[in-house]
Every structure is written in structure tokens, then in C-alpha cells.
Amino acid sequence: xxxxxxxxxxxxxxxxxxxxxxxxxxxxxxxxxxxxxxxxxxxxxxxxxxxxxxxxxxxxxxxxxxxxxxxxxxxxxxxxxxxxxxxxxxxxxxxxxxxxxxxxxxxxxxxxxxxxxxxxxxxxxxxxxxxxxxxxxxxxxxxxxxxxxxxxxxxxxxxxxxxxxxxxxxxxxxxxxxxxxxxxxxxxxxxxxxxxxxxxxxxxxxxxxxxxxxxxxxxxxxxxxxxxxxxxxxxxxxxxxxxxxxxxxxxxxxxxxxxxxxxxxxxxxxxxxxxxxxxxxxxxxxxxxxxxxxxxxxxxxxxxxxxxxxxxxxxxxxx
Length: 319
Fold this sequence. Notes:
Elements: E1 3-10, H1 14-26, E2 31-35, H2 39-50, E3 60-63, E4 72-77, H3 93-108, E5 115-118, H4 123-134, E6 141-143, H5 147-161, E7 168-169, E8 172-173, E9 181-182, E10 188-189, E11 192-193, H6 194-200, H7 207-218, H8 220-228, H9 233-247, E12 252-254, E13 257-261, E14 267-272, E15 275-278, E16 281-285, H10 292-314
Parallel strand pairs: 1-2, 1-4, 2-3, 4-5, 5-6
Antiparallel strand pairs: 7-10, 8-9, 10-11, 12-15, 13-14, 15-16
């Protein structure tokens, strides 16, 4: 029987451990199981997190195995090779597809009926593969997508406009990677479109400045990796936000990665687009208005991912 307040984190590296910590801090769950190929690592993380429970919500945190996923409401896959300096997310593909192929069958071998969330990169490719491997309905297999990228864009725009980033509504869609695009046509600050808001603030609506912001958002992971070796706090908070939408059945709109079945004229891949997220996963994929240029960029992003999928299929690495 599904336990709506039980979560599993598969992979206890920097990202997995940070996600576990973020979920513990949010107090969304009463039970969390950590799974890793290195059992001792999972045990150590569970012990370390558990020692902070007197200062957090009541919760059981322990290291376990795939059999413990049977009644989980959410299983989060973070296992995979880390992105190295100078390496793109797509460069990780063959290594992480093989790791995913070792994980998903162990999940499907249980009676798991919850939401499967993929965080490992390249997240759109792996989300598509996880759905095909598992055979689960598309709405139950989601990727963290461009939820973090969109937060980065909002934060950067908030700094540029000198306004609280929580008042900025902006979205990155497409690949969580180098071909992602900012939906500038839909950016607004508390309902005021971006150009009008700039006028109200006596600030120039500077296309060059906006392009620079987009490039900084797109390349931010590379910048962080070059400085500290990995990114994990931002994605942990983004995953915490997605988990909150599921636990609370919020019906919130987030740009998660989901398998497309005709939306935007696309199919045969997973892509990060705004979707209504609740207790059953992706409830509705939203086809938001895009400019002609944005539509072209989204299709180009999709074609890049399809090329990668085709290459993997040709090598016999895909289902």
C-alpha cells in the first residue's frame, strides 16, 4: 500500500545527500530511505542526517535496499557520473544510461506505484529512457527538468531589476542543457510584462543585457563546477519544491521534464516544459504561447535530443 509520506533517494553523492537534507528540512515526509551502491555511504548519510532530527520534524531516516521502495510515494534517482569541468551534460549520456539501466529494473521488480523522479543528467534523455524502461505511465515518470534553470533566471532577473526574485515570473524550457531557451515573451513581474516594468522603474529594456543574463543562466553549472567541482544546493532546493507539489497535491505549474505525446507538435522524447504537477505526477502538459523565434528554438532543442536518442538506439543502448 502506497505511503504518501515516504520517499526514497537513490544515489548518495553530493546531489543525493543534498536532496535528502533539503527534504528533511522541509518536513514533508515521515520516512526516508537512502539507497546507494556503496551501502556504507548510505548508512553514513542516514546517520548524519538522523542526528539533526531533534531540531527538525519527526522522521525516520535509514539506509535500505530497493525492496524498501515498494510503498514509497516518490523515488528520486540521482545516481550517476558527475559532470566534470569542460564536460557537457550530454557528454555523460552513455555512462549514465548504463547506470540507469542497472537501477530501473530493480525498482520495477518491486510493487512500486509512486512517482519516479529522475535528477541525474542529462535529465531529459534519462527521463525518457526511465519511462521506456519502466513501462510506467508517462505522468508517473518525471525529470527535475528546468526547474532549477528557471529559478536561476528569476534570481538573475531579480538582481538586474532590483526586485525580489519571488515576484519575477520567468521560465526556461527545452533541454536542461546548452540548447535550453528563455521564454522572454512570457516574463513578467507580478503580472507586469518585463518591458513595461522596466519603464515603470526608469530602467532601459536592454536586449543585450537580457541576452547576457540568459547566457549566464545557461552556463552557470559550468561556472560553479569550475570553482567548486559540482552543483548540488540549487538542484536540491528545486527537487524539494517539486516534491512539495506532489505531497501537497498543489497543482503547481513547473517546467519539469516529461515525455511528450504531441504537445508543441513533439513526441518521442522527454523535454522540459511547463506542466501542472500534483500527487499523481504530471497532470497536464501546458502548451504556453511562444513567439515564432521561441518556437523555432524549442524545436531545435528537441531535434538535438532526438539525435542523441537515435545515436543511443543505434548503439543498442536504448530500450
